[in-house]
Here is the input.
Amino acid sequence: MKERVAFLCLGAMGWPMAGHLARAGHTVVVWNRTPSRAEAWCAEHGGARAESPAAAARGARVVLCCTGDDAALRTVALGPQGAFSGMEPGSLFVDHTTASPAIARELAAEAGRRGFAALDAPVSGGEDGARRGALTVMVGGPAEAYAGAEALLQAYARKCCWMGPAGAGQLTKLANQICIAGLLEALAEGLRFAEAAGLDPRRVVEVISQGAAQSWQMDRRAGTMIEGRFDFGFAVDWMRKDLGMALAEGRRLGVALPATALVDRRYADLQRLGHGRSDTSSLIELLRRGDGAT
Here is the structure.
């Protein structure tokens, strides 16, 4: 069923996700902190631009959001002109931000007090997955609310899965980031080892990618790591934000995350070297500099 929806924040992920909704035939009202970007999106996809999150949310059954962190999310949802102030009873807020489980629970509780529902629905797959409509969406919140949104999410998802109550989507995404961090560090070390041993790293990857070492990161990042190209993809700054949340949740749960803590420290080293906006695969540069014993 085609319907009016709102999409808040048109960053590298939000822009194509909202575009998929428009191409699916939905009427999409967008809001972005920088109005010119929202105007550009409307010029490309149609729809309409709202002056505030609240204005975008009025009359929409589903309001979707994809912003940067807890602080930005709280402003977009709960600020003076936030989406929650424009939403109607029976509507649904779907948050695609990678944020803390705590704010997911906070938003779910506040939505319930106002008579509507909220889902935490972080995504994995990066900018390429967003452009191709092939994201993985992990969802926390009421199961019945997820059932009412699943068809809409399929516009840009390869896989959607309900994980449990409020916060479960964010906890799943943190598990995802823990796994990615370890894979990237291992890939960086393996490639640097091959280089130091005098092997052709491309041939090494060609062989080992056909065996048990194969991974999404190896398939998509090994070549650019070998070339020393990192001006794209998921930034170190964002990964540190995510790993910080994962380590905090680990402490809360009493779970040791030693490898995650190590990789987090190494990303901190990259930030100090001015590589905060480089892709997360830039870990190999620390090894090339001889800074691998952190």
